Fold these 4 entries.
Entry 1:
Amino acid sequence: MVDLNKKLHGKKALQIRRARIRIIVNFKCSFLGLSPGIPGINNGINKTTFDNLVKHERKWVFNQTQKVLDAVIFQYTNWEWPNKTNPLVLRQQYMNVITDALFKAPAVRSAQAFVNNNISTYFYRFDHFNVSTLPFPPWAGVVHGGDLPYVFGGPFVKYDKSASEANQSAEIIFSRTIINMWSSFAKTG
């Protein structure tokens, strides 16, 4: 235990214990925050819209230049897709740009900082969603925070006390599994 009293010239202070910290990061999610303002987003976006969104929607890096913007467009163009102007593919590519910039890249950078300081760090991927309970279109996939209702037992609102455990809804059983996994992780890593 580190005694901060000595470090603060004898004044009463906090005592801090060194603790093993475990960091868990969900790196599979999408971000819809900007999509409602894009006309016709449910039908996809055209190449001009994709390019304009990348070039004008936000700064991707400090001291951003045209070369950075061109590199982002190049990186997120699906070169293997025979039709590079497919509006559904372009919509997904734009969602990937936003998701990577807002969530994945910062998560990886943070994880690297934790690892550099010998802090156990884990990534996980959450791909489950129930279309009937989400306020988002199915093409959006799992949105940021989409795992939290399962982590905190949201599906238990519909728990049927008269049904056996095996006959509970798949969402309740899945939520219980996620809760158990998170609890186990908190206990043992």
Entry 2:
Amino acid sequence: MAGRGEDGTGAGGDEHAGDGRTSDRRADPRRTLDDAFEALSHPYRRRLLAVLHRRSPDAEPLRFPEDVVAAVNATGPPAVELLHVHLPKLSRAGYVAWDDEDGTVSRGPAFGSVRPLLELMAEHPDALPDGPL
């Protein structure tokens, strides 16, 4: 079948290897559509992933908390919630690379598997129930 991985699951790679745009399903077959929707289910995670999507893969990492708190457009004391809930969740899924010692956040090894949803949201911002990101 065209467009399918060797196991027939659609877990194929992509020609953009090395530029942060690879389809990471081959590297981590556990990344599913449900995983992507879960990552996008909270506004902080959704906004952070959208900001990383808009940035060049070669861009300097975001700094935590300054850049990350600004990226999610948070109100109130979001740094604690980001630190203890959202960054670990995105990091475990591989969507972000979070270096808690350096305080930096960048695209993770599985970022490519959430990219199609981010592109769809970017292309149709007015169709989203919560409006543009």
Entry 3:
Amino acid sequence: MRPLVRAIYYTTNGATPTTASTKYTGPVVVGASETLRAIAVASGLNNSPVASATYTINAGTGAGPTAVPTFAPAGGTYMSSQSVTITDATAGATIYYTTNGTTPTTASTVYTGPISVTTSETLEAIAVGSGLTASAVVSAAYTIVPPTTATPTFTPGAGTYTASQSVAINDATAGAKIYYTTNGTVPTTESAVYAGPISVAASETLEAIAVAPGQTASKVATAAYTINTGSPPPLAAVNDPNGFPTATDFSLAGGATVTGAALQLTDGGNNEARAVWYLTPLNIQSFATDFEFQITPGTANASDGMTFTIQTWGLPHVAESAARSGIRVSSRVLR
């Protein structure tokens, strides 16, 4: 004999029903998605196990949602522009999409064909089928990173040369345009456009970039050229307050010597004509003297003197006439 059910108790909020829960008195109206749970209670018996039933209500249709759209190619990082297609598995579904980060609705742009993605952006889309609810929103983020143009190269390369150089600039990227400077500024697309070899007649630094269509600018290429035509560079200053340790910087004429860190032009004899010339050109912008020297007359009526000569031509063949007595220069300043 079946036990007589005394009562049924139920819940609609997911809680476990007890005899304190709502007592079932007739059909329960399920107007939205929810889960019903119930127990039965009979006299002289233990309560029944909990029964559970989940209901999903798609309001207004009685049918499920439209399938979620898909993107091809999928979102990701690409080196060039992409042509993105959006498809949906629900036959006849209309696809709506946005590209500005807003959530698409049925008021958004209707998809009619591939979307050109030329810069980094995010596509979002929904699909709505006839008699169905809208799909969930789906998105795809595209990062467009164009390739970088190859760095230009210089021929001949940077270095020290004894004559003017004709420098060519090349780039490995087809169709790249080269921009360059010669004044130490960083080149941009507003700089001089390279059209042929550059004549480098004096020491200078060339800098260049290259830009190809659809690519970002290359790194800056730099080449420093030193043009040395054979003559040693002029000295900026001459200053030997402690004397002259060697004679390697001088041309000693007529028997002049460097003795004890001093220039000795005569040694006490008569009619001596000796001179000292610097081997390296001097860049003389001003002239000042600060000398210590010793004069020892050879005879009672001897005359002594010293001559400083500045010239732009080479060393003389004959030393200028100098003092007959001992004149020793122990320090001097030429600026």
Entry 4:
Amino acid sequence: MRHAALEVADIFRLHGPAWRQAQRGHLSQGQLKVMSAIEQCRSAALGGHVLRCDGCGTDQVSYNSCRNRHCPKCQASAAQRWLEARSADLLPVEYYHVVFTLPAPIAEIAYANKAVVYGLLFDIAAQTLLTIGGDPKHLGARLGVTLVLHTWGSALTHHPHVHGIVPGGGLAPDGERWIACRRGFFLPVRVLSRLFRRRFLEALQQAHHDGRLQFFGEHASLADAEAFARWLVPLRQCEWVVYAKRPFAGPEAVLAYLSRYTHRVAISNSRLVSLDQRGVTFRWKDYRVKGRTRYKTMTLDAGEFMRRFLLHVLPGGFHRIRHYGLLANCSRSASLALVRQLLQAPAAGTAARRLPTRGATDLRLPALWSRHDRRADLPARRADSRASPIGRAAMSASALHSIHSSTPYASARPLRAGQSTSVDSWPCRRSSSTVSCGIAAARPVATRLCVHRGRYRGAAARLQSP
């Protein structure tokens, strides 16, 4: 598996300590936690696993991931799990992509009021779609909506917007039939834009009246009700961007799209070009330009790069993927079953696009890969951990191929020796067959790992020379 030569973690490790010292008192606890998690991700600080192939004697070190939702390296498995869960919700109809964007003045005050403004963005966008979709003048049906929050532009600027994935039709008010959109046309975007603007400004003014908004710096004067009302006047007159893209090619295309968008972070490691005395250089897309010239590179000072990256840290517990209407969590199963009955379509479950597995027959993840199943098998894992320092995690070829092979063993800290462990089989790199692998007794693995809330925590593993 190819890995990026430069990572966000490298920038944080090199320039983070000095920058945090200079910004002392100006960074939130959430931002500091994100920096710490990214710096330690897949390093000796979070512990790991050591494997040895009995066929060729190759040692493999796998360090644990931070699993922070802002980490560029920890989103693939989360996206795959979410994708497989949502594949059952797909319907055999056209799907449309709708984008709701906040104007720049509101984006400026949203930074100090993320939970309030982002929550309004979700709710008002969903209300707009459900209202216009339910209007008999347009569709007259109850829609199902999935919204995904993105807060960044391509240059890491603060640009809050939501991407909506909507089936091309809805359930009739009487629940007796499915009403489809006109082929290739969803809803009029101008009507969506006008209603979205009016309702959002009304909700924002109500939030100000209730004292839920905070203002600092150049916006401190907006704490006054009259000043805030005057500030809203030009926003009622400008155009708000609501964009509807052409329908997808089918349910499989929807899944492929969602796999790219749902768990995306502000910038991926693949977009980083270099880190030198000038700063951080990365690739970005200028949407104001058409053609190939829209792809450009930008160089920012390391401190400015980290500041822009941390602009997009979400409040703790804030859900960035939400479902409304027919897809609302409280009634999703019943609504989809009724719709499939009306469409006479079988239940979806085989449309998920799995990641390639390089010779493995299935994707068997480690027992502690998912934190959602920790309660079911926690007693067994505790018993297994007492018999072995890292348990008996089942890892397939696809899981082991994702190991960062360039991580130096020397970075791990030596601990107590004299222990050994075993794992299931994995493909030997020097042989065409799959062989049974384990840690040889002659070179035991030194580990110190513990189970806490269903995940391993502790120091890293390191091979001890005989």
